[in-house]
Amino acid sequence: MKKTIIINGLFVTGDAAAPVIEGCMVMEGNQLTYIGKDAPQPLETYDEVIRGDRKLYMPGLVNTHGHAAMTLLRGYGDDLALQVWLEEKMWPMEGKFTAQDVRYGTLLAILEMIKGGTTTFVDMYDHMNEVAQAVSDSGMRARLTRGVIGLCPADVQEAKLREAIAFAKDWNGAANGRITTMMAPHAPYTCPPDYIERFVQAAHDLDLPIHTHMSETLKEVEANAEQYGARPVEHLEKLGVFTRPTLVAHGVHLTDEEIAVLAKYNVGVSHNPGSNLKLASGVARVPELLKAGINVSLGTDGAASNNNLDMFEEMRLAALIHKGVTGDPTAVPAAAALSMGTSMGARSIWLDDIGTLQPGMKADFIALDIDQPHFLPRTDYVSHIVYSASAHDVVDVCVDGSWIVSGRECLTLDEEKIKREFESCFARLTNS
Amino acid sequence: MKKTIIINGLFVTGDAAAPVIEGCMVMEGNQLTYIGKDAPQPLETYDEVIRGDRKLYMPGLVNTHGHAAMTLLRGYGDDLALQVWLEEKMWPMEGKFTAQDVRYGTLLAILEMIKGGTTTFVDMYDHMNEVAQAVSDSGMRARLTRGVIGLCPADVQEAKLREAIAFAKDWNGAANGRITTMMAPHAPYTCPPDYIERFVQAAHDLDLPIHTHMSETLKEVEANAEQYGARPVEHLEKLGVFTRPTLVAHGVHLTDEEIAVLAKYNVGVSHNPGSNLKLASGVARVPELLKAGINVSLGTDGAASNNNLDMFEEMRLAALIHKGVTGDPTAVPAAAALSMGTSMGARSIWLDDIGTLQPGMKADFIALDIDQPHFLPRTDYVSHIVYSASAHDVVDVCVDGSWIVSGRECLTLDEEKIKREFESCFARLTNS
């Protein structure tokens, strides 16, 4: 098994006992086996010795909610009212998406994500075989799920559910375990209750978790209460969703009681600050969620509502907006935001062996170029990561023990070809 | 006079009549003389022909409020309550700053700013001769002012005012007009009324504008009302401040009546969204300010409260937070945020010949590398600049007709030396 040592590095570990280490890290195969001040063995015993001077190594970022192929709709109708944006811009275009479009939309998103330090992402979309194949080819890690909208005739519902089940079965554990799956009824407002119950049953049968949108907008919460006599949390609880490990996306509009229910069932919340602001959905109650002990992670959502896939920005937004809105400058400190983007992100999608740099963890990590003005002075590197860094500072990326980005170049994908094919897809979509 | 033409470029002009032009731009000396689809003259008649393929050219960004040397305090005590941060972290360190510290703190800030596309900045600080010299050396443009705190004995007040006047006189119009000056009583809560009146008189005598902090925190507004029987806007109005062209920084806590007063006197507001969020000061009423016809520009504030000097981020925050907080997805559209970062920024510091790409304007512009995933598809470039771009996308920077950054390298300053000296300053400050 190949043994690699990084020497002279600065490591922001995510381990509260030793958050910053200057020294060495060893990986054997796809696992980290050592991190500490001195090399555990003479350097000549390693297959590879990497000098980490002027680089900061940290866990890869975990993007826990998104729709990667929506890169095809980046900048395609911004600053519009939500219904106009959805009905006149997003849905007509998405209705035309072919497998080829999803393939290249996803590949472009993956390029942007890995070059920007995201090593794991959640994707909920259609044509998921294409997404999984792209993940497999790229070397990234992903928790994937066919997101199903159930506002359709029974036979179409049935076909979609079968497709979601087949995808979840086929790909769970694929690509050396880099790909895992979930079941995903799209949202309480897009799936009838009995259809959601069938997803819960399928998740039980396959022993898989559930991912769904929940309480993103006030309007949707009020409509849920009117239609079903219960706000979304109670509604999903009644339907048995939380009997499965569950990750909800957004969770913007929550009462104290709802937060308590989510905490009781250990439901994770993917906070999407950029998307929630851009679509004017509101500001999630993140300080309260964290105080309740809920796993709060971060997601970019699709590129049409963000509009980039820079997880450093989501960490920064998470650290900034809750201070500004609550009036408390100690709300969501830098360390909490970093944890939301890494270890809590990993735990919220049930990947317990990524998200920190510690012996025994999978080798999913990134290196930033800190020989730049915005990383000086050498004060608090956790603060610098959250308040000053960006996706563009990432130079090297390792996932599952393999380098997939080196010196800012993606080693696994043909960037030029992907950009070209992506532009062809977009041209066809807009001209058809 | 040297004639340069850029061909095959994509130009986001800031001119509402022709916001995006694919074609050519000509500069002669320090002025833009043409922008349009076709080259006005045969290419062999130009001294320099630059191919702009895969680059987006736009006006340089204008940062209208900051304290550049505070880069020395980046990450030095984050996530603290405001008074603890000021009294235990900022003030004791700033009290030790020498001219040398301000020189290298400012030079590091200038490096970060120009490499990130900011071509003009406002600085309000101490040891301003050092700041002006750094601006002169760097090739940047700046509106500079000695920020004076007046909570001191009369003889110290007198000395500070004289110093502020001497600086404003000595440097106004220097460096081929790249440097202009202002008078700056620090804030209503740090300057006694009669001392502010002396600054107003000096500004009249020198025919210079006034810059001051105003209504950044609720506490300061309430204290002003209690101490002087008037909120800050009325207080400054009574002291005659607005009889001079005025730019106020922050303006977070404003009533409708105060907004009307600012509009009446054509007072500009430098909106600092990153700093206001991080210090938990609140969210300024930017949609209302814009509706009132006020020039709203953008500032990073000092790096200790931001923590980077990326003006793309300030544009993005300005476009995002007001949507999220007001619930209106059409609040502060991308074009407005871009204007705040460029043309409104220029107008708010009375530099009417920068901020757009149009014939007759000074040649202050930047080029972004748009051959990257996050600039695809080629939909709306104004949207891409505001919602997706960052400082790191900037490759070339031209100020006053001279290239000061080319291929991401600063041509005017010795980056390695500045980083080294900056680190020495920081080490001395923390060990003394």
From TrEMBL, chains A, B:
Keywords: Hydrolase, Metal-binding, Zinc. InterPro entries: Amidohydro-rel, Deaminase_MtaD/DadD, Metal-dep_hydrolase_composite, Metal_Hydrolase, MTA/SAH_deaminase. It is an enzyme of class 3 (hydrolase). Its cofactor is Zn(2+). GO terms for molecular function: 5'-methylthioadenosine deaminase activity; metal ion binding; S-adenosylhomocysteine deaminase activity. Substrate binds at residues 94, 146, 186, 216, 301. Zn(2+) binds at residues 65, 67, 213, 301. Residues 57-403 form the Amidohydrolase-related domain. Binds 1 zinc ion per subunit. Its EC number is 3.5.4.28, 3.5.4.31. Catalyzes the deamination of 5-methylthioadenosine and S-adenosyl-L-homocysteine into 5-methylthioinosine and S-inosyl-L-homocysteine, respectively. Is also able to deaminate adenosine. This is 5-methylthioadenosine/S-adenosylhomocysteine deaminase. It comes from Paenibacillus chitinolyticus.
